[in-house]
């Protein structure tokens, strides 16, 4: 398995080579094997363990186990205890979703604070099959069947192509120790039922199912990207931006096959769910309109006009004073003076604190906004930038900018501005992180 | 369940109303309930039962049971005995595939001979979930996950939206009798393993899975038709017909996103599987070529030329003499003088035997071919007809025509010609059926 993983990394995940990896380590079979393998492959690693306090003494023993494992490997270890039930209750989440949110948020913190390049997890092919069936059982679309992402921004899953059986055999062969999570043996979550009762007879009767799933998901991913391409082509043909929102050209839409399905694809991301009412607009009189929770679709001769239902004006700008360390609206963002810059990511940037003027303002982007994309010479219209990034209408509409004196400092989540970047002369670095 | 089915038929399958239905009746729960329901809804029905001789005495008892059921309903019954194992061996098919071929071929014969409008089967939602998982376990693509078709030409599955549990409850409530197929209890076929061991715990843990599957498959079907639309758009942009085959415009293809994926979609139906070699043609020198079993792809400056690897010329025309009752090459086709016409389908047409000249010739269609589409005034180029029918390149290439004096009598599988149709003055009707 070591050779196979080495080959897989060099062929498919070569960007990992020479990088510092933070391993999400529960102490269970999968993460223990992952830790062992990455150490054998001479990666610089650290182990991060979350104690969710869900199984009393057993949880604490898991933590001890991971600490000892890290010691035996002489690598760094990070642990944190969470009151998962309380967090779940406060945020109205299931225990599993709460644990997931806490986990990835904390991993990202550790990654940044200790300058790891990537977070790696021990997800494997059987997890993928389980996820596929769970999504199916809840009702999903093409995207929901394409599987667990092997690379999702800075989270990488190097043993995703391997099966649980392979991993187990390897662990036994190498006499590895790991912790069994007693809750995995209780058939109370759907995932556990699948693992314990559903998949064993399925895999026995159809031994190739895991390989087949991988092949199938490869096809589904290709199909999904073809649809994305098609829709972005359709957008350029029928949708036009206007100051108040967008217009959809009815005549051009009708020239395309499956007009109603396309109209649905265009409008459903804005919350329109009454497919019939939306379709009827195509044939109705001017002035007729349909509402979603957030948007309005108005028939006006040969176009449908799509506009946001207006929010209160005063909510549209959010101010950040000097030395303010966080905002909670319109999203959570933290500001911190630091000494040394780390990696710029979609959620974190570093700016020269002396180049900016307070108060900073967070607002939605506007037609006409211009910025100097980080790492490029010269300026660019935001509308052009979004077009090049192939952003959908909905994603565009959700984009906020951080501004100083009405100059863009950061297209939040996308690209910092070159004018405010940290350079040789910078004395005060401000780290800005969007945390929700 | 009666009311629910009545509603479903009136909303989704209204074309069935007043029609004569041939029920594929094994004697098992599903087809017995289907027969009961359709009779209650006052359809004119007949029962067709295949005895596959696979379970000895039990098979014969099933047949008796269906005959008695039909008698008790005072409706027509048709039975036929097949030597499935022999047929399977001769045609190198699995027993299940052999039974399937024999069944549908025979149902279609009965349907035509006794002028039923549609064949109806008792497939239900649980069958759909099983099929989904079977396809998944073998590796499939988007199309393979979109489910059992409710309407497939003249075969209709009216109780596809109903679950096995609903059907079973209904049968018990109405005190219906049915035959249990003992082979369904043996976990030897994958389908039986799924039904007996895999799906019960899955459905128990995720009670909504069947409804979710239906919702999911609806989305997948929509996605699939978007891809079809996109590809047909891509074809019009980059593919051009030439006498020897097709050209693919490389420059135009490169203007589209995911060029390689698109090239794969265009070429894979012609048997090209070496994705890498095909992609490399885009950048290679003129003259470089790649072969599939049936086709050649040749780089020529800014186009790829796609041509069929030439067959021997003499194999390209097949003659039918007067009173000949069948041909076996290039496909099986039967010719029969009959008294009364039935429904024209994709595999059967009726022509006025006095309007045609022998020998009839079966050949591939050619650029320049023209015909008079049945039911339309005037003539049409075949190339235009295929374009309107949105046929893919591959399907077009496989199309045969039946000709009389080099006039097209039938675009086989698609449309008969108006000039040779049966009318008031016809004395001799010839029924022509493609059987493979």
TrEMBL record, chains A, B:
Catalysed reactions listed for this entry: cytidine(34) in tRNA(Ile2) + L-lysine + ATP = lysidine(34) in tRNA(Ile2) + AMP + diphosphate + H(+)
EC number(s) on file: 6.3.4.19
Presence of keyword Nuclease: no
Single annotated GO MF: tRNA(Ile)-lysidine synthase activity
Gene Ontology CC: one annotated term: cytoplasm
InterPro entries, A to Z: Lysidine-tRNA-synth_C (IPR012796), Rossmann-like_a/b/a_fold (IPR014729), TilS/TtcA_N (IPR011063), tRNA_Ile_lys_synt (IPR012094), tRNA_Ile_lys_synt_N (IPR012795)
Record keywords, A-Z: ATP-binding, Cytoplasm, Ligase, Nucleotide-binding, tRNA processing
Main location: cytoplasm
Similarity comment: Belongs to the tRNA(Ile)-lysidine synthase family.
Main function: Ligates lysine onto the cytidine present at position 34 of the AUA codon-specific tRNA(Ile) that contains the anticodon CAU, in an ATP-dependent manner. Cytidine is converted to lysidine, thus changing the amino acid specificity of the tRNA from methionine to isoleucine.
Name the UniProt record assigns to this protein: tRNA(Ile)-lysidine synthase
């Amino acid at each position: 398995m070591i050779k196979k993983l080495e080959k897989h990394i060099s062929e498919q995940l070569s960007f990992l080579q020479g990088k510092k990896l933070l391993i999400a380590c529960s102490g269970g079979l999968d993460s223990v094997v992952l830790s062992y393998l990455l150490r054998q492959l001479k990666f610089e690693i650290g182990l991060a363990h979350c104690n969710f306090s869900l199984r009393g003494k057993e949880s604490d023993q898991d933590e001890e186990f991971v600490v000892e494992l890290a010691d035996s490997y002489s690598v760094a270890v990070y642990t944190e205890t969470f009151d998962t039930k309380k967090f779940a209750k406060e945020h109205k989440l299931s225990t599993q979703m709460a644990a997931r949110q806490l986990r990835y948020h904390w991993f990202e913190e550790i990654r940044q604070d200790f300058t790891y390049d990537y977070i790696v997890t021990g997800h494997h092919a059987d997890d993928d099959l389980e996820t596929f069936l769970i999504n199916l059982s809840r009702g999903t679309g093409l995207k929901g069947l394409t599987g667990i992402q092997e690379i999702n921004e800075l989270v990488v899953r190097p043993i995703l192509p391997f099966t649980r059986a392979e991993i187990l055999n390897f662990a036994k062969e190498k006499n590895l120790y790991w912790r069994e999570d007693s809750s995995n043996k209780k058939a109370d979550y759907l995932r556990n039922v699948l693992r314990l009762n559903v998949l064993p007879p399925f895999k026995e009767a159809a031994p190739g199912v895991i390989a087949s799933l991988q092949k199938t998901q490869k096809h589904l991913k290709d199909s999904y990207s073809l649809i994305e391409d098609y829709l972005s082509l359709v957008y350029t043909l029928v949708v036009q931006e206007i100051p108040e929102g967008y217009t959809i050209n009815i005549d051009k839409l009708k020239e395309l096959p499956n007009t109603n399905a396309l109209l649905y694809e265009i409008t459903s991301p804005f919350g329109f769910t009454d497919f019939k009412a939306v379709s009827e607009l195509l044939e109705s009189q001017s002035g007729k309109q349909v509402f979603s929770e957030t948007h309005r679709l108005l028939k006006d001769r040969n176009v449908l006009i799509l506009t946001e239902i207006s929010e209160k004006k005063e909510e549209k700008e959010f101010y950040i004073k000097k030395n303010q360390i966080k905002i909670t609206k319109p999203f959570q963002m933290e500001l911190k003076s630091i000494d040394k810059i780390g990696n710029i990511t979609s959620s974190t940037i570093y700016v020269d604190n002396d180049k900016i003027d307070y108060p900073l303002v967070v607002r939605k982007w506007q037609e006409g906004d211009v910025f100097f994309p980080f790492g490029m010479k010269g300026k660019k219209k935001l509308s052009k930038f979004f077009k090049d990034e192939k952003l959908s209408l909905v994603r565009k509409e959700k984009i906020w900018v951080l501004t100083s004196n009405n100059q863009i400092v950061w297209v939040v989540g996308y690209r910092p501005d070159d004018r405010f970047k940290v350079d040789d002369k910078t004395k005060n670095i401000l780290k800005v992180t969007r945390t929700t």
